[in-house]
Amino acid sequence: SVANRAVAEVAQHDKVPHPVGFVPPPPPCPGRIRHFKI
Amino acid sequence: APAAPPAPLGCDDPESEAAAEVAVSYINDNIHHGYYFALNRIENIRVLPQGLNNDIIFLELELLETTCHILNPTPLENCTVRSFMDHAVEGDCDIKMQRLDGKLSVLASKCHSHADSSKDLIKVCPDCPLLTNLSNTEVLTTVTAALNHYNSKTADAYLKLIEIGRAKIQYHPAHVVFSEFAVAATNCSAAEAKVNVENCQLLPDDQSNFGFCTATMVTRPSQDLTVDCKLYGHQVSTPDPGVFYCPPGQDTA
After folding, report:
1. How many CA atoms does the CB half-sphere of A13 hold within 13 Å?
2. Would you call B16 an interface residue with chain A, using a CB distance cutoff of 8 Å?
3. In tens digits, what is the pLDDT along chain A, a chain of 38 residues?
């Protein structure tokens, strides 16, 4: 169980929480649709 | 240490949009039949640096057909994109461009246009008319009848057909043929054309007066024909009127 806890702690440490209000950037391509989706 | 390569351009970056604007303008300047196209989406962009202030750009664009025929002098920004319900036509284009000292130019382009799926349209609008082949007999009959009808009613210049741009047929609840076609004024009045239509010739390029007509012919349950033509007024540059029509689905390079 000691080994398991260590692994769990590392995994938690790697996950950096996003700041409040963070909006992930849109994917670079394809771009926005101007008229309608085909 | 060498400088890190620049971050790749996103499709919505201002530089991408500037390149797309140049590309769409180039494509529309080189359309010889049908309608102008407007940008719907930048699908992809790749930039290959060639040296100082010199890049090659590969663009993939999705375009949509507008309601402005290429003979229509309306600026593209004022042209309406055809709605999905009007059985839209889209264009997929691959463009190779050069950006030299900040100036963009098109090196090569290849576009393929095709109508949207009929099945998708029918799902949303079961009774909507669908695009049909421009050489369809009913379409040719409608266009001929409509132009004859218009010429018989006007005292102005006798109009000749330049090309059929679009045609749709609706089967339910009535049988209706919708068509759109470009026309040009001749050197004859409609009255002169009645005497000898063979003498009526299109005006020279520098005096050309083009126009655009829409016609609707109902054949069931009753018969009816309506036609509306508008002349654009005198224009300087003209396309080659030698070919009648160019249906969607053709590659152009």
Report:
1. 6
2. yes
3. 665 555 555 555 556 777 777 777 667 999 999 999 88
